[in-house]
Amino acid sequence: MEYECSIEGMILKAEELMKMPKKKLVEVSCESLINLFHTADKITTLKTQELADTLKFDKVKSVQLVCFRNPRKLGTCDSSGNIRINFKTFFEYDYEGVIGVIIHELCHTEQHNHSKKFWTLFEQSCKRIGVLPSEYDGWFIDYIEDSPFMFIGPWKRKYHPQKYSIIRNKICYPDYFLGQNIYTLKSV
Ligand SMILES: [Zn+2]
Asked: Which of 33, 36, 138, 157 is at a distance of 20 to 30 A from 183, taking alpha carbons?
């Protein structure tokens, strides 16, 4: 199977998979899904580097696509600039949302928190790239996580947790290493 090498192509492929009946989905070969993951990994790395160059974020050390155990986690960035993006992001967002998640983690290379300063930088960066929807009129508070300024992006999120779990279980080992915050990817 060949996949178009772009963020948009990857989202289309994810949509195609989520539209399949569960019975069909479990029949998709592990190998093709693992290859899809690796393609998505390459695309994510290239796009993150491209966005970092455009937005002049120069502290990115590495970029990696992963499957997080925490289903709410879409990305992380540690204090050294190592960025991790959840494979699930491609299944939950359209183009603008996926780019928004990447920009969110890029902003963390400068601001390691969810302070107002962070959200201002995030908003400016999203505007520069042109991924904020036209109806956007400021951030609204969604839930409090690690600071009083935890906002949610204005992009529509698509939820299909059960079908995504089928994909994740096909490409990752089950809960063997419970201490880890990411699933271990199978190899082909
Ligand atoms: Zn964050």
From this structure: 157
Give the Å distance between the CA of 57 and the centre of ligand 1.
16
42 within domain boundaries = yes
Residue 2 placed within a domain:
no
Question: Quick one: average pLDDT of 148-166?
Answer: 78
Q: In total, how many domains does the chain have?
A: 1
State in Å: Cα 84 to ligand 1 middle.
11
Q: What is the CATH number of the domain that holds 69?
A: 3.30.2010.10
In the chain, the percentage of residues whose pLDDT exceeds 90 is 69
As a whole number, mean pLDDT of residues 52-73 equals 95
Give the Å distance between the CA of 76 and the centre of ligand 1.
Answer: 7
| d(CA 138, ligand 1 centre) in Å | 17
Nearest-angstrom CA–CA distance, 45 and 71: 21
Instruction: Find the DSSP H helices in the chain.
Output: 7-19, 22-25, 30-55, 89-92, 95-108, 116-129, 161-171
What pLDDT is attached to residue 140? Answer: 59
Q: Which amino acid is at 33?
A: L
Within a domain: 183: no
pLDDT bin (cut points 50, 70, 90) of residue 176 is low
What type of residue is 11?
I
Domain-located, residue 133: yes
> Is 75 or 119 the better-scoring residue by pLDDT?
75
